[in-house]
Amino acid sequence: MIENDHIFHLAIPSHDLERAESFYIDGLNAETGRKYDDRLTMDFYGDQIVCHKTSEEEIDDDVTMYPRHFGVTVTDESDFEAILDNARTHDLPFFQEPMIRFEGETDEHRTFFLQDPSNNLLEFKWYNDPSQMY
């Protein structure tokens, strides 16, 4: 296991960087790191997300939650609620409305999925029992 501080990095396709900026920066409170004509680098809840400019033809039209999505698992339910409230306030598109998965099981958790302007799917989760996050 890595002992030092680190930041997870994820690069995703984006056919419209202005709409991506509105979705991530305005809608989900990510912070702009760098912005160029071909990419947008952001601090996304402590990790690095980079939207790389792609053509609209390269964007998947038919997306499903599994196997490809990314997201954030928060350790505090109030953070989950804040992200959910922010998504609703900014009218971000839900791919899957908030729900409880595995209700009554040890890995019960709250979750919802958003769909960004380039059809990338994001999942946000909060576990009743934090030991079940991994």
TrEMBL record:
The VOC domain covers which part of the protein? Answer: 6-127
Question: Cross-referenced Gene3D superfamilies, in alphabetical order?
Answer: 2,3-Dihydroxybiphenyl 1,2-Dioxygenase, domain 1
InterPro entries, per this entry? Glyas_Bleomycin-R_OHBP_Dase (IPR029068), Glyas_Fos-R_dOase_dom (IPR004360), VOC_core (IPR037523)
Name-wise, this protein is VOC family protein
